[in-house]
Amino acid sequence: MNPRFPPVPIVAVLAALAALGGLVLLPVAALFAEAAGQGLGRALAAFDDPDSLAAIRLTLLVAAISVPVNTLGGLAASWCIARFRFTGRGVLLTFIELPLSVSPVISGLVWVLLFGAQGWFAPAVDRLGVQVIFATPGLVLATLFVTFPFVVRQLVPLMQAQGSEEEEAALTLGASPWRMFWHVTLPNVRWALLQGVLLLNARAMGEFGAVTVVSGRIRGQTLTMPLQIEALYNDFQAPAAFAMAGLLALLALVTLAARAWLEWHTRRGTDKTMATA
Amino acid sequence: MNGRFVRPNPLPGFGPAFGVTLAWVALIVLIPLTALALRPWSLGITGVLASLESPRVLAALKLSFGASLAAAAINVPLGLLVAWVLVRGRFPGRQLADALVDLPFALPTAVAGIALTTLYAPNGWIGGLVAPFGIDLAYAMPGIMVALVFAGLPYVVRTVQPVLMDLPAEVEEVAATLGARPPQILVRVVLPAILPALLTGFGMAFARAVGEYGSVIFIAGNMPGLTEIAPLLIVIRLEQFDYAGAAVLALAMLMLSFTMLGAVNLLQQRLARRAR
Amino acid sequence: MNKRMALKSAAAALLLTITIGSRPAAAQDSLLNVSYDPTRELYREVNRVFPAVWQKQTGRSIAVNTSHGGSGAQARAVLDGLQADVVTLALASDIDALATRGLVAKDWQTRLPEGSTPYTSTIVFLVRSGNPKAIRDWPDLVRSGVRVITPNPKTSGGARWNYLAALGWALRQPGGTEATGEAYLRRLFAQVPVLDTGARGATNTFVQRGLGDVLLAWENEALLSREELGADRFEIVYPSVTIRADPPVAVVDAVADKRGSRAPAEAFLRFLYSPEGQEIAARHHFRPRDPVVAARYEQKFPPVPTFGIELFGGWPEAQARHFAEGGVFDQVTTPAH
Q1: Is the pLDDT of residue C17 over 70?
Q2: Taking CB atoms and an 8 Å cutoff, what residues of chain B touch A109?
Q3: B152 and B218 share a domain?
Q4: Where in the sequence is the domain holding B123, given as residue range(s)?
Q5: Closest residue in chain A to residue B232, using alpha carbons only
Q6: Listed residue (C21, C80, C57, C2) closest to C270, CA to CA
Q7: Minimal C-alpha gap between A268 and chain C (Å)
Q8: Cβ C228–A236 below 8 Å, yes or no?
Q9: Are residues B11 and B59 located together in one domain of the fold?
Q10: Are the beta carbons of B126 and B137 closer than 8 angstroms?
């Protein structure tokens, strides 16, 4: 970011790029090479299929619900954990992180234990006539569970490192709590928050293991994009499956564009203040 | 919420924020996990222990936790290097490289598994290079390790990156003018400052690796006692309608991870306090 | 003050989560068929044809939805509340599991002809073109240097048929006993480098990854693989004897009664037995029951000596003895230390 930093040796850059390329880029390239070898037409056929379109819609819906819920919850929790010392703070933090270490299979299973036909809440759900698992609500719940810790994980270390001096100063200068939050807290953490939301969104769209358990796999109804990709792959339609995977990666990374925009926007802002100074 | 529970603090908003936090944690995490924690005991204590002590279960747990620790340990230097280069490096295509880091997240685990297997199988681009020497990558330990490192890398990079961005330039600058070389700067100056974040990243990469199912299943080979991971055993028990048995394994894995994460958190907070 | 605020926001968050909608129950004239993996192509066509038949019979329109997955996982989903009107699974024991929990009547297997199996299949060997390792029969699989691909019987219905086919051959050899059978299985699984979780996964390992010399597979899966991936790349080998694999079907009584869908559900299953349904099954590589249709497909399905699940005392016994935790499969795959 800053030209005053000592330069990074070229060896380090090359090593990092080699690691990224070999570990991340190459497998994906191999995948798409294999798909392309079987013809582009078969790949694009994926987007002609009403089941695939339904899967795209469903994935967007699930992400549209889980991302805001976990972002707001994560912000609230980070504020408590990073700014206050209270009994059980460590336990709370560990609980928040716990979903990360729960195998995706289990993240689906827990909802079956609650809402499945023999689950705790089965009678209540039955009386209401609502289908929770094997329908959209179950997919949302499983996704919420899996993507639970991302925002907190990004914010807490940073907020702790920053300390609360600036916020306290704002309050002393007479700012209202909301003003302080909007003008001090949020701008200070915006990269980390954005990063957290990016991870959250990517994982919400790409989650496979947990939604497998609660989906019921009804074609055109409860298959999210990752499940549809698997279904296509299993149908000997590998090119179409990889085309869907490509679209999913793009959708999941859409927040990257937001970050680039924000970065550009703020840089222009600081340039302006420097010019007026 | 008076002085006893929360230490006095001039900052506002603890009450509402804590309320939201509690509801959020309870509904999405606590209640489901309680259901999981209570499920095994229909077997009785002896039943629970019996379903854990078979050599096959122990081998799977050992593999899952051992390989995940190793993968997280590989991810720490690797992720630090990548994060450092992305934050400080000036080279064409930096944005693109930055986007690549999130790819393991954005790809559904099944796709990642298929992609890695395509590459490392004996007829793949990399697997084919070593196959003539009788080395198996896919369907053996190296394959499992690759899948776990792949899954965990973004966690380390993305936790270290924001802290690295926030680090004031002056210290490094001074170190540089005093004649310190880049590796020295990294080890002596940068490293202590980002150690808490690095630990967090380690914990996340480890935790993610332990639970990883979708990608490993394609590349592991899944031979009992050799390349069979613990999450697969859970699935196998579920296939047999053995919910209690599956919950026992799940709970055992959860408690092991919980302990590990708790230890990492404790260490991380101690470091964070000392750094301040 | 703070405490009240905390409670209030907790309540608000709770309300929010509850009101996050759930979709209304599916439209009335619809059926959900929960099936296993290799029937995707079959039921895609059945689902297209059946609504017209139903319309002609009753004047009502209907939409059939399908769900595909591993047979055991699918049965579990139905147990857990997936609203399946009919199940069409890989093995009787998966429907038995539904029957023991009261979702399907205990006598389900006698309610439809042929033990409620409208089509059958069998287990065959898929080898690479030219059969380079000269694999002709079961003993060839345990020759040194032969690598065998089969999925994990714990997670795949097809793999259980593979396993029992191999065991059945060994039991029927002169002097064959349980002990020689298990010895053969131990040698067989020592030649297996990968245990995929599903039949299609194993097919992909064999076909796309080029691993192994022979794939144990459903006949319908082997025929489909050749059709999809090139008849010149693979050959099908029929062993001297194999198992008759019967994938069963049943109405899920609990769901059909609740949703009032019994009539179309039963009609759907009966359609599978009709000449038209049998023709579709045969086209999608399942052996038809109807002798007339079977005669038309004689070329495609060569006669092969088979034994049935009775050899192992029926599914409940085979399941408990071989595939339960600590069963024979676990024993023969425990690495010798």
Answers
A1: no
A2: 36, 234, 238, 246-247, 250
A3: yes
A4: 54-275
A5: A105
A6: C57
A7: 38
A8: yes
A9: no
A10: yes
Does B133 touch chain A if contact means CB atoms closer than 8 Å?
no
Same domain, B58 and B37: no
Q: What would the pLDDT profile of C252-300 be if each residue is shown by its tens digit?
A: 999 999 999 999 999 999 999 999 999 999 999 999 999 999 999 999 9
Q: Which CATH code of 3.40.190.10, 3.40.50.300, 3.30.420.10, 3.20.170.40 fits the domain covering C30-117+246-273?
A: 3.40.190.10
- Asked if B257 and A101 come within 8 Å (Cβ–Cβ), the reply is yes
- What CATH number is given to the structural domain containing B164? 1.10.3720.10
Interface check for B237 against chain C (CB to CB < 8 A): the answer is yes
- Between CA A5 and CA A8 the distance in angstroms is 9
The nearest alpha carbon in chain A to B171 belongs to A5
Q: Side chain identity at A254, as an amino acid letter? A: V
Q: Which of C76, C193, C208 is opposite residue B238, by nearest beta carbon?
A: C76
Q: Tell whether B49 is covered by a domain.
A: no
- Pick from A98, A106, A198: CB nearest B234: A106
Domains of chain A with CATH codes = 48-276 (1.10.3720.10)
Please indicate, yes or no, if residue B197 is contained in any of the structural domains: yes
Do B9 and B81 lie in one domain? The reply is: no
**Phi, psi for A133 (deg, rounded to 5):** -85, 160
Yes or no, beta carbons of A205 and B78 under 8 Å apart:
no
Domain count along chain B: 2
This model of the complex carries an ipTM of 0.84
Neighbours of chain B (3+ CB pairs under 8 A): A, C
Amino acid identity of B16? P
Residue B48 lies in a domain: no
A and C: number of Cβ contacts within 8 A: 77
Which helix (H) or strand (E) covers residue C43, if one does?
A: helix C40-58
CA B86 to chain centre: 21
Per-residue pLDDT of chain A (277 residues; tens, 9 = 90+): 444 566 778 888 999 999 999 898 898 888 778 777 777 777 777 788 899 999 999 999 999 999 999 999 999 999 999 999 998 888 898 889 888 878 888 999 999 999 998 889 988 888 888 899 999 999 999 999 999 998 998 898 889 888 899 999 999 999 999 999 999 999 999 888 987 888 898 889 989 989 988 999 999 999 999 999 988 888 888 888 888 888 887 776 676 666 667 667 666 655 544 444 3
Q: Long-range contacts made by residues A230-235, C-beta under 8 angstroms, separation at least 24? A: A230/B108, A230/B110, A231/A51, A231/C40, A231/C68, A232/A46, A232/A52, A233/B110, A233/B114, A233/C204, A234/C37, A234/C40, A234/C68, A234/C198, A234/C200, A235/C40, A235/C41
A58, A223 Cβ separation under 8 angstroms: yes
Contact B15 C2 (CB under 8 A): yes
Residue range C120-245+305-333 forms a domain whose CATH class is: alpha beta
Q: Does C83 touch chain A (CB under 8 A)?
A: yes
Q: Which ranges constitute the DSSP H helices of A165-253?
A: 165-172, 177-180, 186-206, 209-215, 225-234, 238-252
Q: Is C68 in contact with A135 (Cβ distance < 8 A)?
A: no
Q: Is B232 within the bounds of a domain?
A: yes
- The pLDDT of residue C2 is 53
Is residue B28 located within the same domain as residue B127?
no
- Quote the minimal CA–CA distance from B224 to chain C in Å: 7
Give the model confidence (pLDDT) of C34-44 as tens digits: 999 899 999 99
Q: Residue C27: which pLDDT band, with cuts at 50, 70 and 90?
A: very low
Cβ neighbours, 10 Å, residue C208: 17
Burial class (CB within 10 angstroms; exposed 0-12, middle 13-18, buried 19+) of C24: exposed
> Which residues of chain A make contact with B90, given a CB cutoff of 8 A?
7-8
Of B27, B51, B237, nearest to C17 by CB-CB distance is: B27
Query: Could you report the average pLDDT of every consecutive run of 10 residues in chain B (276 residues)?
Result: 70 92 95 93 89 89 95 95 90 85 83 90 89 88 94 91 81 78 76 86 90 90 89 88 90 88 82 69
Give the residue extent of every domain in chain C: 30-117+246-273, 120-245+305-333
**Interface check B238 vs C, CB under 8 A:** yes
